[in-house]
Automatic annotation (TrEMBL):
InterPro entries: TM_pro_TauE-like, TSUP
Protein name as it appears in the record: Probable membrane transporter protein
Family: Belongs to the 4-toluene sulfonate uptake permease (TSUP) (TC 2.A.102) family.
Alphabetized UniProt keyword annotations: Cell membrane, Membrane, Transmembrane, Transmembrane helix, Transport
């Protein structure tokens, strides 16, 4: 990673990155998937590939705060079913990053996000939602978990954009607000931490990127506190609408850049 590229940023650019870091904290404790906006800001200020390495430790900091807040609400059977497929997706994403340029990454992720949002909206209108997350034990539920798991692992590896994919899965599986946040908190803490060796091996994380992270991670905390305050004031229907809207905005932004 080019140290000069990272540190030759203006005050306004640093302010944009700080705002994006604050939004990471908010998204982790309130509206999962909203951090696709943070992804877009980082990719606009920094080189696209380098931005994923800078953003990853900030996401992990947000994950830690989310786990501390919602740890009692995680649904572990769902997590154990997802992890093998996610691991396969991370490996596929790593191989994709070896040869893909920034344009291919943006187009692929944007298309996947919009497809997931469309499928979720269609399912919610075509049938009654599953009220119990344990419904993923059915054959169709297991197939859905594997499909979303691979896509989630792939998108989180290549662009830190797995949040909207997993949001669509958890909504379609019938998770309520706190169960949604608790399950996604543990999921992304484990997945994002496991990505660190892959990102370092690709040269996306190094000493200079970590120095920039040290300056930005302080802004994650107030964002997380704001999210914790806001989530109790958002009803379930509005919560789900915000998650889907954030997914669509993130997908369109990636496609239109």
């Amino acid at each position: 990673m080019d140290t000069m590229t990272l540190w030759h940023i203006t005050g306004w650019e640093f302010a944009a990155l700080a705002g994006a870091a604050l939004l990471v904290g908010f998204s982790k404790t309130a509206v999962s998937g909203a951090n696709t906006v943070s992804l877009a800001i980082f990719a606009a200020v920094l080189p696209a590939r380098a931005s994923t390495g800078v953003l990853l430790p900030i996401l992990i900091a947000g994950d830690v705060l989310a786990v501390l807040t919602y740890r009692r609400h995680a649904h572990w059977p769902t997590l154990w079913r997802l992890f093998p497929a996610v691991a396969a997706g991370v490996v596929c994403g790593t191989l994709f990053l070896v040869w893909a340029d920034d344009g291919a990454v943006r187009t692929s992720i944007g298309a996947i996000l919009l497809m997931m949002a469309a499928v979720t909206v269609w399912r919610r209108r075509a049938a009654e939602r599953e009220a119990d997350p344990d419904a993923v034990t059915t054959r169709s539920g297991r197939l859905k978990a594997r499909s979303y798991g691979v896509l989630g692992g792939f998108t989180t590896m290549v662009a830190n954009a797995g949040g909207p994919v997993m949001s669509m899965y958890l909504l379609s599986a019938g998770f309520r607000k706190l169960g949604f946040l608790g399950t996604s908190a543990f999921f992304f803490l484990i997945v994002n931490t496991s990505k660190v060796p892959f990102s370092a091996g690709l040269g996306l994380i190094d000493g200079s990127s970590l120095l920039l992270d040290a300056a930005l991670v302080l802004f994650v905390v107030p964002g997380a506190l704001l999210g914790t305050w806001a989530v109790g004031r958002i009803n379930q229907r509005l919560f789900e609408q915000l998650v889907i809207a954030a997914t669509v905005v993130g997908g369109l932004q990636l496609l239109l850049r």
